[in-house]
Amino acid sequence: MSKTILTIDDSASIRQMVSLTLSGAGYNVLQASDGEEGLAQATAHRVDAVLTDLNMPKMNGIEFIRQYRAHPSSTGVPIVFLTTESDGELKRQAKEAGATGWIVKPFEQDKLLAVVKKVAGS
Amino acid sequence: MNEAKRAGIAMQALVFELGDEIFAIDAAQVREILDEVPITQVPNARPFVDGLINVRGRVVPLADLRVAFGMTRSASDQDSRIVVIEIELAGEPAIVAIYADRVHDVADIESASIEEAPKVGMRWRSEYVRGIGRRGDSFVIHPDLGRIFMVESGMDGSTENAERGSQ
Amino acid sequence: MSTPDPADTFRQEARDLLESLEQALLDLEQAPDDRELVDSVFRSLHTLKGSGAMFGFDEVADFVHEFETAFDRVRKGESSVTPALIAVALSAGDHVGKLIEEPGRHAAQGEPILAALHDIVGDRGAVKSTSVPAPSDGARQARTWRVRFRLPDDALALGTNPLLLLDELRELGECKVEALADDVPPLEEIDPQVCYFAWDVTLTTEAPREAIEDVFMFLRDGMALEIESLEAGENDGPSNTDEVSSMPTKAAAQGETQVQGAGRQGAPATKAGKGHSSSLRVPAERLDELMDRVGELVIAQARLSQITGASDDLELKTVAEEIERLSSGLRDITMGIRMVPIGTLFGRFRRLVHDLSHELGKEVEFVASGEETELDKTVIEQLADPLVHLIRNAVDHGLEDPERRQRAGKSRGGKVRLAAVHSGAEVAISIRDDGAGLDAERIRAKAESAGLIAPDAKLSDHELFQYIFHPGFSTASEVTSVSGRGVGMDAVKRTIEALRGSIELASEPGSGTTVTLHLPLTLAIIDGMLVRVGEGRYCLPLLAVEECVELPEAEITEAQGRNFLNIRGSLVPFLRLRELFAAGGEPDPHQKVVVVSSGESRVGLVVDQIIGNNQTVIKPLSRLHADLGTFSGATILGDGSVALILDITHLVSFGRGFEQRLRDERMRREA
């Protein structure tokens, strides 16, 4: 059975790019446009990994990671966040909240795929 | 059509009767020919296009060339047909329908028999006629449908409909 | 299915982001201390930058990066929000728009904007920060490494799969893996979420050390990792042994958050239960296509109902009813999809007013209401230009300059209100200014000089005002750069009428002008009432119908003159559709009056028979009938014939004309 990846980003183009890349590699992709929606999706479906942006309206990525990690269904689910700058502070907060890893934007599709394979398997 | 004539090309034409006259229109612009269908009268519309019909889910205006050619409008009978055609209206393609008392056939009208409409001595507005052909003993009128629809529907701004006229 | 191009998606997204950036900036001008607005500006910029860089819009990413850097000073409270800052930020936003629409053509224009921006926030000489990728070693010979790692306690819970890490090491080269179970506690003490194993891997690979480190990139500061070269003289020393001491504290912090979070668990879970929906962008043509198909379905369904109505087959009737229910549900959903709140348009007007007020030196307060009012997307799309024109008019011609207002005893600042409200089958959108009002004398003078009216013609102000809708009629004696464009009120009127709407004008000298647009809710399918007039059947929008009454006996004999009906004390003008349509045949002995309304006005329509309600799929009339105001379209009935749809606004204004004439007559008699 193919793995399900949830991508959370307020940028539709990023979501689309992530979705195209991952579904092209055989993953199921769920999408959400902010942390709130992401949390609803992540807790309602069985997901194998989450890719989330940090800077989002309503609920930002850090808060999403915190709340999701507080939910039992997040156990064993890797969370990778996307970040635009190599901002140490944000990265530290995200990791403290329970993120597994990160990808720095802009990134190539290959890199994305490699990271997802790394955390979720193929 | 005049170009066709000069080039010596024959025209495939749908020949039909209306009143005492025989008309021929380019067969390429004919979409379909319908037997009698319910016609909805459009109050206050110009007499030339005072009807609407349903052609496969599309509301299509029904025009009567007899109005344009000053002929009397007689009641329809079992030979009456409605010819659905495609014309260009103010640069845009449009589907319209016209009455026919009787549809003859599709015929090759020899280009040589299409004569330029005589400007003088015609009963009709000469701009409405593209040419006159001969078919056996009778004359065949090649109407300029684009022109007729523009003028008779007031799209060229020359006439007013009853509604506007009364206001 | 064609694959969407993310670059296109980005362009669309960027338009939305720029729109919300603009709104936030305009809001910020009003509320300079609102942190949330500053954050929202920042977020828009951030996403623009990030996504722009992703999809090759480097100019955008670079420019926005600078923009963001400057704005960061505002966010950090090092610079304050001033009108000057907003003005430059708005033009920076516009510039980004250009960079996106026409890459490679506008880059040079960005410099002065950025310079102005940096000047205002006071960070001239800001250093452009660029991320430098870590240098990597070149290709090497295969070497053997010893890799030892132990995962942090929470690694499994956080989604790290040690087997995947091992797989990844295997991809780098030949591996010998040994699991070290030294730390595994007795069974009863085992926490299944904690990883007790450590691994010792001997790896032979051509890949550099960084490649091995990359395998653990997400874990390194929380784990014990040793990478040792087994080649002679290649031991890199202790600096490469990552033993992170902060691990226990981190785990503690993690535990704390979990406890904290546990209490909140309920909320997201219930939300998830409701199946939180995400939105989807669909090309507009597909919606149009869907609507067409649904229209055909509704017509086919009407035919089916007609046929089964005459049948005795109960089973057939049941199925037909089921299909009727389904198709009407499908119709409602499809129409709902097409409805867009008018607020999507209002946004751009704030910017328009903002710019106009600067340009014209007028203080303008712009108030919009009814943003949530929904209209068919086709209508919304067509409304933008007319509204821009009307608002421009209101600010430019409607409002006086501050001095003149002051002299007239008004506040220096003028007010322009834009309001949208539902009423019956239509939406009314009004643009109202508190300016000087229309100058009837000047309109008359212009109309006379243009030969539109005779010098001695007696016209009410209301009638005079209608001349501003005449082509080429513009009353502003000095044409300003703002309003003196090619489009005039005549174009506005044409557009509105093409949408089957109408336009109304009211003006009070000294206190302002109100322009009201009446628009149909939808151009697709409506609930209709079918009536018979003579031989013909006509459809009217059910939402416009207020009530149906019998035509009183007394009225039947008085065909001329008193065309008014007394309905519970109020006089309602009525139109005999038989006369209006020159219908043949005998009138029905029991004629009915259908009272319809549009805005404030009502009119009674006298018909021969009320047939019933039906779903009306609106088909536009061809251009050959475009000049018939009485009909807004046609529809196809269950029996396949065509019925015309009555244009309520047109008929009501017809009735209003009646009223007017009656009043005039009465005034003449009294005089």
Number of helices of chain A: 5
Write down how many β-strands of chain A occur, each being a DSSP E stretch of 2 or more residues.
5
CATH architecture call of chain A: 3-Layer(aba) Sandwich
List the domain count of chain B as a whole number.
1
Q: Give the mean pLDDT of chain A.
A: 85
CATH class of chain A: Alpha Beta
Sketch the topology of chain B as an H/E string, one letter per element. Answer: HEEEEEEHEEEEEEHH
Q: Which chains make the largest contact?
A: A-C, 56 and 58 residues
- Give the overall form of chain B: globular
Question: What is the assembly state of the chains in this entry?
Answer: heterotrimer
Sheet having the most strands of chain A: 5 strands, parallel
Number of strands of chain B: 12
The Rg value of chain B, from CA coordinates, equals 16 Å
Major β-sheet profile of chain B: 6 strands, mixed
Q: Which residues of chain B form runs of ≥5 with pLDDT under 50?
A: 1-8
Q: Can you list the strand order of the major beta sheet of chain A?
A: 2-1-3-4-5
Return the structural class of chain A.
alpha/beta
Strand content of chain A: 15-25%
Overall pLDDT metric of chain B: 79
Task: Describe the overall structure.
The complex is a heterotrimer of chains A (122), B (167) and C (671). Chain A has 122 residues and is of the alpha/beta class. Chain A is built from five helices and five strands. In chain A, strands 2-1-3-4-5 form a five-stranded parallel sheet, with helices on both faces. In chain A, helix 1 (12-24) links the parallel strand 1 (4-8) and strand 2. The mean pLDDT of chain A is 85. In chain B, strand 1 (11-18) and strand 2 (21-26) form a beta hairpin. Chain B is globular and about 40 Å long. The N and C termini of chain B lie far apart (41 Å). Chain C is of the alpha+beta class and 671 residues long. In chain C, 43% of the residues lie in helices and 21% in strands. Chain C is built from 20 helices and 22 strands. A five-stranded antiparallel sheet of chain C has the order 2-3-1-4-5. In chain C, helix 1 packs antiparallel against helix 4, helix 4 (83-101) runs antiparallel to helix 5 and helix 10 packs antiparallel against helix 11 (314-338). In chain C, 34% of the residues are buried. Chain B: It holds the Pfam family CheW. Chain B: Residues 10-154 form the CheW-like domain.
